[in-house]
Design a protein that fits this description.
- The chain is 38% helix and 13% strand.
- The chain is of the alpha/beta class and 209 residues long.
- The chain has a single domain (3-208), classed as Alpha-Beta Complex (Spore Coat Polysaccharide Biosynthesis Protein SpsA, Chain A).
- It has a four-stranded mixed beta sheet, with helices on both faces.
- The mean pLDDT is 95.
Amino acid sequence: MGPEIAAELSGCFLRDVAAAIEAIPKDVGRRGYGVYAPAGAEDILRHLLPPSFSLLLQADTDLGNVLFGATRDLLAVPHDCVVLVNGDSPTLPTRLLVEAIEVLRAPGDRIVLGPATDGGYYLIGLKYPHRAVFSRIEWSTPSVARTTRQRAQEIAVDVTLLSEWYDIDDAETFSWLRAELGGEPGRFQGGGPAAATRAFLETVPENVW
């Protein structure tokens, strides 16, 4: 689809994930953040994210350090729990975010994991900054979610699994997205509206895909 369309689409994904967070009922309680790098990219994120979102710089070449640093810093704000959400699941249902928060607010230490179809996860929620669950992980491989659960087991922290969802990584998952937004029967149903992504796809000629 080319770099320009891909970049526009990525921005739409971020808008839609942020909208899913914004749709969490106020009585549940939440505050949205955009975790980003490099320094100097703030204006881009402020253009993409709702005005209510704050920004948190986490500049590191290792994704595990970024995720741990964000968890640590957000829990220190303080917040009673942190839910880290990916930026490429535009139809992620708000109900899964609410479920993650409700699980985390139950008594005792626990971790919530939203497994993705590719073996990673679309969401991880924590009540304490456990570095172990972000350490010794082969990122961007099908073993990410499984290894994360193993790391949690090693430190004796229970993991609650949410329903599986998908992120957009390749032509196959992009076809799932188009089918879902088109109302076609498919693997995933009942997702969020993905208004920004839907509107942008309607402007792109069919022969681009």
